[in-house]
Amino acid sequence: MVWSALMPMQKHRLKVMHIILNLRHDGAQEAVRTLSEHLAKDECEPIVCSFVDGPLRHDLEEFGIKVEVLGSLRRYSIVALPWFIIEMLQIRRKLVQLVRKYEIDIVQTHLLEALNFLALTLRYDTALRVVLWTIQNVEFLPNEKHWLLRPKRFGHRLLYRLTAGKVDGFIAVSDQVRESLIREIGSVQDKIFTICNAVDVRRFERPGDQAALCDQLGIETQARLVATVGRLTKQKGHCHLIDAAATVVSSYPDTHFLFIGVGELKDVLMAQARRAGLSENIHFLGKRQDVPDLLAAVDLFVLPSLWEGLSLALLEAMAAGKPIVATAVSGTTQAMIHGETGLVVPPRDSAALAEAIIQLLSDPAQAQVMGRAAKQHVTANFGAQKQAEEHLALYRRLLSKQD
For 44, which of 39, 215, 278, 331 could close a Cys bridge (C-beta 3.0–4.6 Å)? Predict the structure, then answer.
């Protein structure tokens, strides 16, 4: 008893459960991996909960982070109301069990969309103290343009406005995402906290083997390599990069573009590349687990997105010391310094995209200077440990309000 009285009191480690839809190696999932790894070094015990398993689970468990997979994803929309309600209740029961099992203090959601509202209900019959919604994109509401689907967008906006008073906070991954939240949801500024996406720079500090990559692609060893990383969806603007590539290749025929990622537009984009006569210059590499090695081996990184939150792929390319050409969308204009860390061009402007790529390919010395500046900038302002510390400070601040 005397010895125990003399022992210093152990500080309570916060139990934080991050809930995400799946464990693929995509941007938001990588953000969860990076945050969980660095929170584990501080005063938190992170647990990651996903609806669908994936390769990211191995990475998380290697860090000693507990992973729970629910093994089911939503199958029914609200149109099939009885089945929708039954499914929501089943998902909620599983989540309640996990919150109780791990004695969770904080739940933080990522890309859950409508399931954000379900997560909010967990606090009513558990000891859960804080619920946070991470908003990764300026277009966080359903983005369908067809008039028949407008009620869905209206319904989501209404739900966010009705529940904004119940959630403890929104974490916006960039200043522009914060502005979008205020615009769409209304006057909840005191509950919106900007914590930018971040990158573990150490993962991208490696020598590049361009000759080996060229050999793997079956192209000439001295080829110029331009990479883009992202899902093959409308948001990422690959169609505009293909249009720009035609202009670039006409000036530098030895330029090859690497499209790293998968998505529903693959066949459409491949057909566009064929029509442009670029089948030999555009390589669709699919989902790759060796993105740091690929980035290390290329000359230039391009982000042609139409909208973003704060692209993790952009931060990773900066961490790899690559010169960047990126479109002036949310997050990018916050992370990039035009003319210093790379070149920023208007979205949907293939001509400007091509001109910027040609400028950097034609001046390797300038490109290298920009690449070094990009790495220094991301290290100083978007490092993983800084992001973890900002999250931890927010957790403590919100919990202290309840004491």
Answer: 39
Cβ–Cβ < 8 Å for 330, 138: yes
> Do both 157 and 83 map to the same domain?
yes
pLDDT at 252: 97
Which of 120, 126, 122, 160 has the alpha carbon at shortest distance from 140? Answer: 160
Per the structure block, which two tokens stand in for 65? 């982070």
Torsion of CA 106, 77, 88, 98, to 10 degrees: -40
Give Cβ neighbours of residue 352 (< 8 Å, ≥ 6 apart): 345, 346
Cα 284 from Cα 287, distance rounded (Å): 9
Tell me the per-residue pLDDT of 380-395, one tens digit each, with 9 for 90 and over: 999 999 999 999 999 9
CATH number at residue 135: 3.40.50.2000
Angle between helices 150-163 and 175-185 (to 10 degrees): 100
Q: How far apart are the first and last CA of the chain?
A: 29
Number of Cβ atoms within 10 Å of the Cβ of 346: 11
Residues 290 and 171 in one domain: no
pLDDT at 66 over 50: yes
Cα 188–chain centre separation: 24
Q: What sign for the dihedral angle of Cα 375, 379, 382, 384?
A: positive
Distance CA 293, CA 306 (A): 26
The pTM score is 0.90
Q: Which amino acid is at 390?
A: E
Based on the fold, state whether residues 65 and 104 are members of the same structural domain. yes
Angle at the Cα of 260 from the Cα atoms of 349 and 376, rounded to 5 degrees: 75
Task: Please say whether the beta carbons of 95 and 19 come within 8 A.
Answer: yes
Strands of 224-229's sheet in order across: 282-286, 255-260, 224-229, 300-303, 324-327, 342-345
Alpha carbon distance 36, 40 (integer Å): 6
Bridge partners of residue 106, in order along the sequence: 16, 130
Q: To which residue do tokens 């900038």 refer? A: 377
pLDDT at 402 over 50: yes
The per-residue pLDDT for range 200-249, each reduced to its tens digit, is 999 999 999 999 999 999 999 989 999 999 999 999 999 999 999 999 99
**Which residues touch 283 (CB under 8 Å, ≥6 apart)?**
217, 256, 257, 258, 259
pLDDT in tens, 253-286: 999 999 999 999 999 999 999 999 999 999 999 9
| Structural domain boundaries enclosing 317 | 201-381
Q: Are residues 180 and 243 in the same domain?
A: no
